[in-house]
Amino acid sequence: MDANSLPILERVMPSPGASFLVKHYPNPKDRTNKLPKWHYHPELELVYVRGGHGRRHVGSHVSHYRDGELILIGSNLPHWGFTDRFTGNKAETVVQFSASFPNADFLNLPEMRHVSDLMDRARNGISFNGTTRTVQGSRMERLINLDPLSRMLLLIDILHQLAVSNEFESLNVDGLHLQIATHGYDRFNDVQQFISEHFRRDIPLPEVARIASMSEQAFCRYFKKVTGKTFITYLTNYRIVYACKLLADEHSTIAEVAYDCGFNSLSQFNRAFKKHIGRTPTDYRSDLRKSVMGFLPQE
């Protein structure tokens, strides 16, 4: 793999007079200044996606979200963007701030204990759900219209509310939270990039082990340690998450989605999908259609 397979370093530049960056995309079709590729940055990132469905791909974690997302990503944790033309979301708000926000002395105050703990836990990636997602996500959307001081005070309170919430899921990617320059990280990134380029076809274990420059046995141990899954399970999950996105496209049949995601037969796809998602692809697409209709204005 060449250097282009490495995650892109995103340069985060706060606006003049501000200590952190807020970006709001009220039009889902507006991709201006968005970074869709595998990337990282020293700053933590808090993302609220209002409505829609899409892929969470953070570190070694790949899963599918529905009805919006509120996610906190730790420093230097590689990830993909959470929205694209298939997502169907209504808006997206992104806040990026340093690991010592608002500054190291302030963060060490007793009153900031919970927020400091939250920022440490963010190294694993945290997805929030329930009322926390709805309420704090809506508050995040207000940030864009506030003056700098009010914006900072509101963000601190949002972080505090997230810190004390029990409506969250840890994405458990601590095994990948390595220094960007280390050989171990580069190895996993090469494998990750290889999967993203070739998941639509069969990937024999010897082939992917060669990408990692390891024997098959050593690769299996390494991959299980980093991701918590076997390579086959991880690859199947990756394909299913991609299938969830394709199922939103009414122009594709279930069979076309199955083959586009690398499954050899429709029956194999149906079994794997139901095992991972808990519903058949047909039921999943039907539920998606109902949720979209629910967003439409009623006559």
Give a quick rundown of the structure.
This protein is α+β, with helices and mostly antiparallel strands and 299 residues long. It is 43% helix and 15% strand. It folds into 2 domains: 3-174, Jelly Rolls (Sandwich); 178-292, Homeodomain-like (Arc Repressor Mutant, subunit A).
Average of the residue pLDDT scores: 84
What percent of the residues sit in helical stretches (DSSP H or I)?
40-55%
Strand order of the largest sheet: 2-8-4-7-9-10
State the oligomer.
Answer: single chain
Question: What are the secondary-structure elements, in order, as H or E?
Answer: EEEEEEEEHHEHHEHHHHHHH
**End-to-end gap:** 55 Å
As residue ranges, the low-confidence spans are: 1-5, 177-183, 294-299
Tell me how many strands there are: 10
Output the structural class: alpha+beta
For the record, what CATH class of the largest domain applies? Mainly Beta
GO molecular function, one term: sequence-specific DNA binding
Keywords: DNA-binding, Transcription, Transcription regulation
Pfam family, one: HTH_18
Organism: Neolewinella lacunae
